[in-house]
Write a structure and sequence with these properties.
The protein is mostly helical. The chain is built from 20 helices and two strands. This is MFS transporter FHS family L-fucose permease.
Length: about 450
């Protein structure tokens, strides 16, 4: 996947943005990336409980996976990915991400095999954390490229809805992960060992390699920084990237949101077991139902974003998430509290793509670096779980759910300020009349020639 020269140079968009059928091919390829990291994330949360059982580690120690995944990968590697994206473009960045992703997944095999002869569970767990770090570096690279590409390839007015749609497929994959884990990790003769972990991650590596082959031979239209400046003329932010305050506050919102999302899922099975008297296997199934709810929430938010403003949707959803997580942290024992926790997944579903679209809005040539900075916000997933894990070990899992509540409060503050600054609009903005509606490939130069046309009433004017 990484060797040799790319057979065709990446075509360049000469101006404007894609629309209609022209968007289908590039977005379909990008959606495959969202699916890959959604599946990987879905497996991660289930591994916490499985490693607690098989390797004899504590809840707090098990969050080392999240620290490596979100802290090591996303916090440390996202700036590198953003620089590669700025210098080499989307296609090469995506190929680099897929290479790291597949490599990390393959390394799960020898680490899992080592558990057969090593009685030191913590040492084996350290090996899994190292593999997770490599996977996370790949996923941070993919997220930096894919989220940014989904935003800039089409009309700016529909950027949030478009990213919501792409992220919805991330949700589809994230609930498939726990379903597979509940069948292979927690049942049968291998429920108390790591044999099935080997085979699941070998399949993950093969899937990553297959997608890499598709991208290697694909003609993926590039969006140059000159085009970004041209498209946002009159609206682009001035000054250095350090002075783009909306982007930096968006980073904070992304940090708090992802931290809340990750820690809610990380301790979901523990909460279901302790508060709902549910078995581990059933708890894993219920986590899948929660992630299905999350996916439905993404698709619903995609439809709502076409009608209502993104800021308005986020204010409503943030308020609901705060209320529900606060209730979960104080709820009495019983299955009803687990149902409320599942409902939280619906309301936090649109937060990541909406914050990303808001944070990269009107940044011109800063867009690619801003994408890397906002993906760094995913590192919140490395901070919140250890904090909640420490509280869970000391006071109980139920009380520890006050941690994500605090994260949602910051998210509400960010989107509310943006909503007020934007004039408190309830309806989605209308798209501008000028779009790109035709693409043709020049076979000799391998360029994409964009023909911009005005709508009929503009032509008649």
């Amino acid at each position: 996947m990484a060797g040799g020269a790319i057979p065709t140079a990446a075509p360049q968009l000469a101006g404007g943005y894609l629309t209609g059928r022209a968007l289908i091919y590039p977005l379909s390829l990008v959606i495959s990336l969202f699916f890959l990291w959604g599946f990987s994330y879905g497996l991660l949360d289930v591994l916490n409980k499985h490693f607690q059982t098989v390797l004899g580690i504590t809840k707090l120690e098990s969050t080392g996976l999240q620290v490596m995944y979100f802290g090591g990968g996303y916090l440390l590697f996202s700036p590198i990915a953003a620089e590669v994206l700025k210098r080499r473009g989307y296609k090469l960045t995506i190929l680099m991400g897929l290479t790291l992703y597949s490599l990390g997944a393959v390394l799960f095999w020898p680490v899992a095999k080592s558990a057969d002869s090593n009685t030191n569970g913590r040492a084996v767990f350290g090996g899994f954390c190292a593999c997770t770090l490599v996977i996370a570096c790949g996923l941070a690279t993919l997220e930096t490229a894919a989220n940014s590409y989904a935003v800039v390839i089409g009309a700016p007015e529909s950027a949030s809805a478009r990213l919501q749609f792409c992220q919805s497929w991330n949700g589809v994959a994230s609930f498939i992960g726990p379903l597979i884990a509940s069948k292979f990790f927690f049942t049968g003769e291998n429920q108390n060992n790591l044999t099935n972990v080997q085979y699941v991650y070998l399949a993950v590596a093969c899937a990553g390699a297959a997608v890499g082959v598709l991208f290697f031979f694909a003609k993926l239209p590039e969006v140059s920084e000159a085009v970004l400046e041209e498209d946002q003329a009159g609206h682009v932010a001035q000054g250095s990237i350090w002075k783009q305050w909306n982007m930096w506050f968006a980073f904070g919102a992304q940090f708090c949101y992802v931290g809340a999302q990750v820690t809610i899922a990380t301790f979901f099975i523990n909460y279901a077991h302790e508060n709902g008297d549910i078995t581990t296997a059933k708890g894993s199934n219920m986590l899948s139902y929660a992630l299905i709810t999350f996916t439905v929430g993404r698709f619903v938010a995609t439809g709502l974003a076409v009608i209502f403003s993104s800021e308005f949707i986020m204010v409503v959803y943030s308020c609901c998430a705060i209320a529900l997580t606060a209730y979960v942290s104080a709820a009495p024992r019983g299955i009803a509290s687990v149902g409320i926790l599942i409902a939280v997944f619906f309301f936090m579903a649109p937060m990541y793509p909406t914050i990303f679209a808001m944070g990269t809005r009107n940044l011109g040539h800063h867009t690619r670096r801003a994408a890397g900075i906002l993906v760094m916000g995913v590192s919140g997933g490395a901070v919140f779980p250890p904090v909640q894990g420490a509280i869970a070990d000391a006071k109980g899992t139920r009380i520890s759910y006050i941690v994500p509540t605090i994260g949602f409060v910051y998210v509400l503050g960010y989107v509310a300020v943006n909503w007020v600054r934007g004039g408190i609009t309830f309806m989605a903005p209308k798209a501008e009349e000028s779009t790109v509606d035709e693409i043709t490939y020049d076979n000799e130069k391998n360029d994409v020639i964009i023909e911009q046309r005005e709508k009929k009433h503009n032509e008649m004017a």
